[in-house]
């Protein structure tokens, strides 16, 4: 059974940075697309970024985080990261990573494409 564990969340001031990690067990993340989602209080979950399987390594981002967030892989550590810079208060949310298990040649930030999810890590951007 695949398991994903997120870490790296916390409290940061506006303009600051955080790096989230998504560590997998029971599945080789390099064979599948992985995405980051977030859910703010009182709002629906939304896709933030995705990365295709490692042999393609294409990335995509929600428009509002382009140029500020970077998704990447470390295949040796079976980990996907989300580097978040220039954080804004509207980035406050619980962040989740998710992986599909088909091996698509593309990635999307649509939740129904993904099969396994982590438990989430809280990010609070506040002064």
Q: Can you tell me about this structure?
A:
With 127 residues, the chain is mainly beta. It is 0% helix and 45% strand. The chain contains no helices and 11 strands. The strands form 2 sheets. Strands 2, 4, 5, 6, 9, 10 and 11 form a 7-stranded mixed sheet that branches. Strands 1-3-8-7 form a 4-stranded antiparallel sheet, with no helix packed on it. Strand 5 (46-51) and strand 6 (59-61) form a beta hairpin. The chain is globular.
List keywords for this structure.
mainly beta, seven-stranded mixed β-sheet, four-stranded antiparallel β-sheet, 0% helix
| Sequence stretches where pLDDT stays below 50 over 5 or more residues | none
Secondary structure class reads mainly beta
Q: Main β-sheet, in a few words?
A: 7 strands, mixed
Mean pLDDT score, rounded?
97
Rg? 13 Å
Number of strands: 11
SSE diagram, text form:
Elements: E1 3-7, E2 10-12, E3 18-25, E4 34-39, E5 46-51, E6 59-61, E7 69-74, E8 79-84, E9 93-99, E10 116-117, E11 121-125
């Amino acid at each position: 059974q695949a398991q994903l564990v997120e870490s790296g969340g916390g409290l940061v001031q506006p303009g600051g940075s955080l790096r989230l990690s998504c560590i997998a067990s029971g599945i080789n993340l390099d064979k599948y697309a992985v995405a980051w989602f977030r859910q703010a209080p009182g709002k629906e979950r939304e896709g933030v970024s995705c990365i295709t399987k490692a042999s393609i390594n294409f990335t995509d981002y929600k428009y509002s985080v382009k140029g500020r967030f970077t998704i990447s892989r470390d295949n040796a550590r079976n980990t996907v990261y989300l580097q978040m810079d220039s954080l804004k208060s509207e980035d406050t949310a619980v962040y989740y990573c998710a992986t599909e298990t088909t091996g698509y040649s593309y990635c999307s930030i649509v939740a129904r494409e993904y099969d396994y999810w982590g438990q989430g890590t809280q990010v609070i951007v506040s002064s």
